[in-house]
Amino acid sequence: MIQNTVYFKSRPSQLINLGNFLLTILIVPVILLMEELLKQHLPILFIPEKMVIHIYRLPVYLGAFALLNLAYQILRVYCITYEVDSEELRQYSGVFLRKHEYVELYRAKDYKIEKPLIYRMFGLGNLTIYTSDKTTPASRRKI
Question: pTM of the predicted model, to two decimals?
Answer without folding.
Answer: 0.77
